[in-house]
Records
---
Amino acid sequence: MKYAFNTWAYSSFPAWLPCYPLDEAIRRIAAIGYDGVEIGCAAPHAWPAYLNKERRAELRALLTDCGLQAVSLLATPGGGPGFNPASPLAEEREATVRYYNEVIDLAFDLGAEKVLYIAGWQIFGTSRQQAWDRSRDCLDRIASHANNKGITIVVEPTAAATNLIETADDALELMRSVARDNVKVMFDTLHALYRNEIPADYVRVMRGDLVHVHVSDSNRVIPGEGRVDWIGLMQALNECGYSGYLTMEIGLDSRAADPDQIARTALRYLKGVESQLNCDRGR
């Protein structure tokens, strides 16, 4: 398995503290032993407009020096700025497409191959079909720009945070509706648990279209401290030939969190699960 860590825990999103410069977060994540990093595109880390050409080159050089792969970039739709691709407001949808295209350009500059797509949320007074159609149209435009950069757009079902794409089947249906080779799917164990579903079954449903996985335990706690069957999840990933990263998206909900401790503990635990599986296969 390859392991990555999401930078939210080292930034001020969504909690205000703790907060470290992106350079520092990259160095720490690499020193702990991760193979890759997922970069959250919010200030102060990676809001595209705040990173000029020279700064992007510096960050890419730092990633190379640290032996850390930029795995994926995660946009930040929601809240006051909006960025809802399912919005009834044409102006908001246009702003969303522009923002995603800026994130795609940043991913290209940093050497990342994937950008995650949050399909948005259905607003009161809007039918689900209207919301779906608007999100699909935005996704198609975003994926067209991404294709020119060699970037894969990854649809994430986010049941705990949005109300449009909630399940593995939802994500696959949206992916198929745009019919583009550079649109695939992912899932987050947190959102599967929110629906009282089994994360390993998301692997089996998504199979060859699964290119990214977010891992956390119940309520975003460290893997091993909640109710995810990690052995079952890793077995399913192995059986389906998953070749992507397991990306930790944890430690982002409290200023009391210690990102180094969280990153280190999560990596040690999941590598232990992987070792157990390898031993079982060798018997």
Note: The chain has a mean pLDDT of 94.
---
Amino acid sequence: MSVEQVKSKPHERLAELLADEMASVNTLIRERMASKHAPRIPEVTAHLVEAGGKRLRPLLTLAAANISGYDGPYHVHLAATVEFIHTATLLHDDVVDESAKRRGRPTANLLWDNKSSILVGDYLFSRAFQLMTDTGNLHVLRILSDASATIAEGEVLQLTAAQDLATTEEIYLQVVRGKTAALFSAATEVGGVIADRPDAETQALYAYGDALGIAFQIVDDLLDYWGSDATGKNVGDDFRERKLTLPLIKAVAKGDAEERAFWSRTIEKGDQREGDLEHAIALLNKHDALEDTRQEALAWSAKAKAALQVFPQSEMRDLLIDVNDYVVARVS
């Protein structure tokens, strides 16, 4: 391995290895986000699509197709489909969350309006389904349409679960599978399905994406209380937004009546005062909630790594393992 490879991040090395395919994906995205009759559609879409980001989900589709020995052309369509679904959910999420920034830039709903963000998101979902049908593969269509339904279901579940102290770890996992893991697992599974690989391999790809997505979200939620400028997270954002994530769920489950009253006031009722965040973090540490959450992230990461063992050793398998390790590196 060269010095340059050691210094670069796994997803960057993955992007380098799949650069030609990603160029085709980007070309297809630009073609399909066009609209002859509604110029606002490409304006809004380009604002988000061209803003950068790791493009991890479409890269995972291309990588899954690669490790399955597929040589095209429909993995490009599927990668573009995954990115369209992801972009559509971001447009909708920013409206629901009333967000002002996305990837360091003003959100589309702030620059245009909520109506434009919702309707352009709907357009991208439609484009995604058109791209799916181009493959002529009903199994692929089922996987991605199921994932779209799971994403929507997860978002609705989160509306009721996020500020309810009765939310369990099982419900949290359902939310995480909806908001994050469903698209990760669909992205990887379809790469194997389009290559017509045996069920053992496509299920392994599904398991990898599912576990990777769950680990990804748990780490993100953990860093809200463990983060710093170095991790790119502002400590306490989830607390201020009254989101009941895994660290809080663990602390609430172990808390006494006085602690439960504190969580009820700050999370359920939204009555937050000076010093509450510091007290919340103290309670998390008291009950080892942060460390327990970290161990869960590492356990899901281990599941993702184990799933790939069905494939023979290769540069692509090693890279996918490195991507998985990188996801949890900030809390390892």
Note: The chain is about 75% helix and 0% strand.
